[in-house]
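Task: complex structure prediction.
Instruction: return structure tokens for all chains below.
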Amino acid sequence: MTRETILQMLEGVRSGELSTADALTQLAKLPYEDAGFAKIDHHRSLRLGLPEVIYAAGKTPAQVAGIFERMAAAGGDVLATRASAEAFAAVHEVEPRATYHETARVIGMRQQPHVAGVGPIAVVCAGTSDLPVAEEAAVVAEYLGLEVHRVVDVGVAGLHRILSQREVLATARAVIVCAGMEGALPSVVGGLVAAPVIAVPTSVGYGASFGGVAALLGMLNSCSPNVTVVNIDNGFGAAYVAAMIVRSGDRKS
Amino acid sequence: MTRETILQMLEGVRSGELSTADALTQLAKLPYEDAGFAKIDHHRSLRLGLPEVIYAAGKTPAQVAGIFERMAAAGGDVLATRASAEAFAAVHEVEPRATYHETARVIGMRQQPHVAGVGPIAVVCAGTSDLPVAEEAAVVAEYLGLEVHRVVDVGVAGLHRILSQREVLATARAVIVCAGMEGALPSVVGGLVAAPVIAVPTSVGYGASFGGVAALLGMLNSCSPNVTVVNIDNGFGAAYVAAMIVRSGDRKS
Amino acid sequence: MTRETILQMLEGVRSGELSTADALTQLAKLPYEDAGFAKIDHHRSLRLGLPEVIYAAGKTPAQVAGIFERMAAAGGDVLATRASAEAFAAVHEVEPRATYHETARVIGMRQQPHVAGVGPIAVVCAGTSDLPVAEEAAVVAEYLGLEVHRVVDVGVAGLHRILSQREVLATARAVIVCAGMEGALPSVVGGLVAAPVIAVPTSVGYGASFGGVAALLGMLNSCSPNVTVVNIDNGFGAAYVAAMIVRSGDRKS
Amino acid sequence: MTRETILQMLEGVRSGELSTADALTQLAKLPYEDAGFAKIDHHRSLRLGLPEVIYAAGKTPAQVAGIFERMAAAGGDVLATRASAEAFAAVHEVEPRATYHETARVIGMRQQPHVAGVGPIAVVCAGTSDLPVAEEAAVVAEYLGLEVHRVVDVGVAGLHRILSQREVLATARAVIVCAGMEGALPSVVGGLVAAPVIAVPTSVGYGASFGGVAALLGMLNSCSPNVTVVNIDNGFGAAYVAAMIVRSGDRKS
Amino acid sequence: MTRETILQMLEGVRSGELSTADALTQLAKLPYEDAGFAKIDHHRSLRLGLPEVIYAAGKTPAQVAGIFERMAAAGGDVLATRASAEAFAAVHEVEPRATYHETARVIGMRQQPHVAGVGPIAVVCAGTSDLPVAEEAAVVAEYLGLEVHRVVDVGVAGLHRILSQREVLATARAVIVCAGMEGALPSVVGGLVAAPVIAVPTSVGYGASFGGVAALLGMLNSCSPNVTVVNIDNGFGAAYVAAMIVRSGDRKS
Amino acid sequence: MTRETILQMLEGVRSGELSTADALTQLAKLPYEDAGFAKIDHHRSLRLGLPEVIYAAGKTPAQVAGIFERMAAAGGDVLATRASAEAFAAVHEVEPRATYHETARVIGMRQQPHVAGVGPIAVVCAGTSDLPVAEEAAVVAEYLGLEVHRVVDVGVAGLHRILSQREVLATARAVIVCAGMEGALPSVVGGLVAAPVIAVPTSVGYGASFGGVAALLGMLNSCSPNVTVVNIDNGFGAAYVAAMIVRSGDRKS
Amino acid sequence: MTRETILQMLEGVRSGELSTADALTQLAKLPYEDAGFAKIDHHRSLRLGLPEVIYAAGKTPAQVAGIFERMAAAGGDVLATRASAEAFAAVHEVEPRATYHETARVIGMRQQPHVAGVGPIAVVCAGTSDLPVAEEAAVVAEYLGLEVHRVVDVGVAGLHRILSQREVLATARAVIVCAGMEGALPSVVGGLVAAPVIAVPTSVGYGASFGGVAALLGMLNSCSPNVTVVNIDNGFGAAYVAAMIVRSGDRKS
Amino acid sequence: MTRETILQMLEGVRSGELSTADALTQLAKLPYEDAGFAKIDHHRSLRLGLPEVIYAAGKTPAQVAGIFERMAAAGGDVLATRASAEAFAAVHEVEPRATYHETARVIGMRQQPHVAGVGPIAVVCAGTSDLPVAEEAAVVAEYLGLEVHRVVDVGVAGLHRILSQREVLATARAVIVCAGMEGALPSVVGGLVAAPVIAVPTSVGYGASFGGVAALLGMLNSCSPNVTVVNIDNGFGAAYVAAMIVRSGDRKS
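Output:
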């Protein structure tokens, strides 16, 4: 039942063709999406200008390319995360404007105008092995319209490295911290900034790191109260939350 | 080494009483907190106006009262979380202005002026058993200066209840969602709002809820990308993050 | 917005007092529960005649009694599960017609007429220590209107006991099996009947039973494909599902 | 010892050729299956008309084809689950009437007459990644004689999609819900229907989804009491239970 | 249907009072226990002379005493494990001949003649904290008719203590080893003897001993291939298995 | 220090060439293996006639062949478990008398005379997928000199199959039961026999079977007290324990 | 067989009273402890001067006092860890010289001369809740003869506090770090010192700290390679290892 | 801000070109590494002469070679752990002086003079499967300048093997013990020596060894108080800690 069919029904009531009782019966069955629900959903994506996102893991290159092409046709920005080089080759064939961010394993294509300097946020990572997750966060955040400062290789066993980056961190409106192994970096960063810290445990480590569980538990038990946590290796989610935080603040003013 | 002792040293250099080489030696040993580090820490608490917080669990009523009194003497707002009625009785004796929020198990005392209408945020909870955690979040958020809208008893098994609260949710700049059992509510709320959602798993449940682990895992695996997670029953942390999000936005404008 | 306010609005359209555009605007905001949603919810409880249920664990006797009294006032059947003798004492004071099922830890009160012989179902338990959970299932099922056959103390280490009960099991339209320790009984029962088996792991056991986890895993991995599982000690849930199964079948005919 | 040999023995007693003591000795050794036990087993499969099922995972294509051929020779319907394309190629060579359901990874062959419109049931899945498990459930259910309504891609982060399917769900006599990640969909569906919900956790997800454990725990802790759970990815078991539920109801009338 | 009723039926056939067809029908319904099954069960307990055993944990003193009295009336030996001093007081009132083994938490009463020197077996424990479990094993084994050699306080951090007991170990036909913490003792003992070793993890320890799980895992992964494992703290089960081993050997000769 | 060097030393003392103080010093350093320790070790293998065993998993075919050849040269029986067909090809080249037991993945070679009819024991398995583990147990047990009765495909969902094998089970002096999934078979078998039952959880299953953990926990929590457990898939260990049990009994007579 | 009895035997050989063959037989049976083994054990405690230690948890005050008295009679230092005030009261009655260290829950008594300034070591703790474990480590270390520097309340969320203690840490020959929650402090301290760091996870925390497991995993996965770990709350073990490290170094020079 | 810029600033103050207030402002921003922090870091590596270490797992041969070459250019010793033969081939091409330790999977190159006989330490391993981890520890320890005694294949099921090595163990200033399966060896070794024992759980085992978790838990719960633990398979970390222990001792004298 679209806006048009409801109007038609109301016109029927007005004209007397439809009894109010029959109209009531029709309204009682009104599917929820017609009652404005789906519109809100739509409004949200329009208002936020968020790109469409494909989770490429477990999809064939052909499937990724097919979905990418269809989404791109809608005119918005398009992203594919966890995308292999093969997936990019397939996408590139149908969408030559698409770019591949290799470390981040992200395919992106911008079709919308881009406002500079929103944010900024910082994306911090403990070691070079955490880079793929950190880059997924950073690249996605940039496609979501944020200005991103990258701070890499600042593990807690060498505090001077993170301490020397305090000024960059201080300007960030949200800080994403990616760390594997013991996952201690978000606690340290959380003590240095007055902004929300989004901690991303990575599956980097071996033995009793249990594929990121040690880092995840470390972050959930952080002694810095400004730390929240997303799923293991979920760079995309961290970027999305950071965008929400920045937009939530911008919306107000 | 305080600001004064550094100035004194520089004066010595200026007057020629102290050689530059000796001054350099003194500076090389400069404890970090003296080099502005502790000041930043101080600046942050001053700028944010955050109250001092006591984690009362595992402390005797006398200990809580003692710390509370000392903190109150500093002139700022004071909070004690996870505080028993006995702890409040002890606090009340030394600080008659302190208030006890029973459901939230929070003792609070305001000494600073309070700006109305900051935020607002929403605190949502799935069932009445989640109320203590939700109230901890709500009361702490209020002491942190935020305007809080409470939305209670909106479990996912009766969707109409949460759907009827969409307008309240839409105005929130951050949404705290407390849920035990399967922890599904943050995913549903996350789909309804365009703001960051801070999910708080509660230890409510039995059997395979494993004291909140089921809810925690559910929230970490949320299909709504705007969801982040804090520790089980950590209402205080959720409120703190929400305050950081709101202040991070306000700082910009 | 109730049925009446919608009718009023439609009358306004019919009479010309309200434009169709304004009516459309009002409808777009229509809260979901008003659009028939809550009614369905209501229809369901009416059609099924299910009693209201209080989860008494973690509530004070006074709270249980208060809720019980309020629910009883609505005229339907009322149940409280996981209720202590103290809770019953408090309920009994306000509702002398309430009954306490001690082993099942259930307080019940019937106010609706009861149809005999619906079902039947069977409730089976492995050992006498599983009896509280089995009785919770059996008593709740009876309040939900089912005829219940109890089969107790039929552990798999003495097969002749369960084999001698095959005729009772064969008549059941659903079989609830409660077992702790290794949780093997549902698999054995599942091989004996041509009905759905609802397995309830109990927290009975010690050491590596991990409070029912061993039984839970055993049941999830059952080699009998007609076995489904509910949470540890969740006798109430098993009874509810059994009622759904029986009603689902009755609805059809 | 078959029915005939027992009769023979009794005739011997009657004619005096066999003493009652010797007959007693023979009876004391009577294997259980001869005493009617195996017959019940047989009766069940005959009465229910259930097909024979091969679990193809871990078997070579040749083994699957060999078992398939042998079972097909018995004249009933035959199913193989978790079957690869290679397994189907081998089966197809010996049984050209066999069909391959690719997404469901099921090979099936019908030899028995089929009654239309039994049930119906609904098979619901949260995302496209859950489709293989959902299709296994749907295809198996169809071979078990049920009418199946498929409802796909109705995750809880976009409630309007599941809400728009309420009428389809309302007609189902059992609802199978497949979901990975946080596993919240069964709770939401459970609140919308008055039928038993069989929840199937899928291994879809990453990080702290632990191969389906997060979804499994979510479902076991569902706040909707009409939800029961089967093993991770166990679409076959869910279909089997649904068939049992429908037949249990039909048997009665 | 007892032996007598079957004989009666056969006599009926012989005399012609009962047709063979009717006799066949009666036999087809023959409950399994009547077909010799229960007798085997009975034979076993008679042949082995095993006492009746009550698991007293979770039972009231009155319940333990009631069951104890009923079992004692049957004339066999009676045991109650995990029994408190209160339970013994209640038992003693109804059965003054009962004895309480305090460390083992076992109540026992012998009514059957006892053959000396069966076995022998050894019961070994690592530390004094493991004594309650070791004593449960030793006392139960003695009531099961075995001669028991106790070897206490022989932890692996002081090898000379266990090495000095090699001769006692060498004569044992089965060795029960109780150990908490790292559970290493069974591996060491297993290397010293040519007999089966029954390992009993105890819940002794703290922190990462996880209530006996560390010891359990250590024992399951023993590098000595003659080690098998029973549940945490299951001294009773270890004694029972040891009795089975000894009787299995004696039966042969 | 061999027997000879000790004698030599004592001769030196006797002849006066060596002072008693010097002799004492030498003796204080006496390595333990010389003091009879290693001899016991040696005696044990001689007395038991146990073959040498190679754990082939993780070794190259060449390594397996090399060790096999060296062990065979000592004249005893030789076994290699978890051996691939490639490993056998390599062994066969250097030892043409070696045999490959394909399902069991065992390479064996007998060089010692073999006594028939020792035991017997029974090896039982729940499903055909458990066969590799059961065959490892059976083949190893045969090389350890035992007579083995195999009982296959007797899952608990079809009790008549295991019940029809009761006579075979009754003669066994030890019963090895291999089962995956819920691991319920040892409990059922344990109730049918008066012998020790060695339960082997197998890694057969999927989802919440967690590679055999569900079966392991089920077996540890068995309600049949004559059940002990070895590690997941440890068919070798079960056979070894069974041999120990049989020999322990034989030793006595 | 003591040193004296061996000498006696050798004298017998020398004098010809004992044949060398008989002497050899006696030696072959030589219990291990007699061959110098126990002496080494004894030497070690003498050389190291380590006090005797009682683990008081799970022992009654009377038991603790009894063991304490007996040990004190031997003339060495005596320690009891995890001791309650009640246990101290009982000890104090029999040994008035004993001291109670309340926070550390340690009862100690020195009877041996004490060398000052051995070490030193540092004992660091993250928060005031970790103090009991840190004090157990510090007090035990002092009784083991070490000089201890305490550094308290230096959590990683306020780096300036730990940084200001760098000089104290730099002089330590071993550093014990006690931390609960995320357990990040040892990694940070490990980066600041060139000495071995012994990390002690504490059970401080709530929710997903799982009684110290989160801290334990964090420490095992430390990015500082000079970190080793002891059991949760094991302050005693950490002190013991620290003493071993210091003595191992001192022994060399 | 380098040493030079600070001197320049102080000269400005001295000459009057810079006011003391401005100088104070500059100093307040002073990055921490300039204040001597980084120097300490540098001093530490210089003083200890520790080689640079590359963790090669997850890096391409080209990446390993590139980093190796760059580090070697600095003139110190260089190590790469977890390095494949392919990685060595690539390193060898750019640094022909590099050596490959195959079992240890370590590439090393010495450029610094080496002092003999530091330590010594012992590296002990339980079985041949633990050799790769033990060799990683031994080889790394040698590059760190220690003398290493290797003790291999001394599992606890054959105590005479470890007992015969007591003299070698007694001379070690630290003992590294690598063991998989039940991880019992460190407890046994800990009882034999008066030095710190560093336990390394290995991932050797199957089934319930859970990739080294069983060994890890066993070691954390060791009854020998001189045992500390590092991560699973972390031979490098164990060697590093051993070097710290030896240097900590040497530093003192």
